[in-house]
Amino acid sequence: QLQLVESGGGLVQPGGSLRLSCTASRFTLNGYAIGWFRQAPGKERERVSCISSNGGITNYVDSVKSRFTMSRDNARNTVYLQMNSLKPEDTAVYHCLLFRGLCSGVPLSSWGQGTQVTVSS
After folding, report:
1. For residue range 78-118, what is the model confidence (pLDDT) as tens digits?
2. Which residues of 86-110 are buried (b: 16+ CB within 10 A; e: fewer)?
């Protein structure tokens, strides 16, 4: 069962920044699209962003456009989500998942524990 490991979450004040990381220790992320998802208490799970296998294509949900940037370092087998100008409504558990296509369809990896992001003063 493929599973990715998320890290980098924490408590930050509104307007602050965090960088989330997504990696795998037993397989390569190369050649696969990666999506970041988040789920806040009482809300539906939401896809935040996606990056293509070569990093050439990224897309974002409207609520995070111009604030979040996704990138990947295939040499480090890691995908990042740089989050700037954080807002309280960004508070959620963030998960990353592996896809064959551009983050559509059934993910190839299972849901992990995620990393908690809390934006609060």
Report:
1. 999 999 999 999 999 999 999 998 888 899 999 989 999 99
2. beeebbbbbbbbbbeeebeeebebe
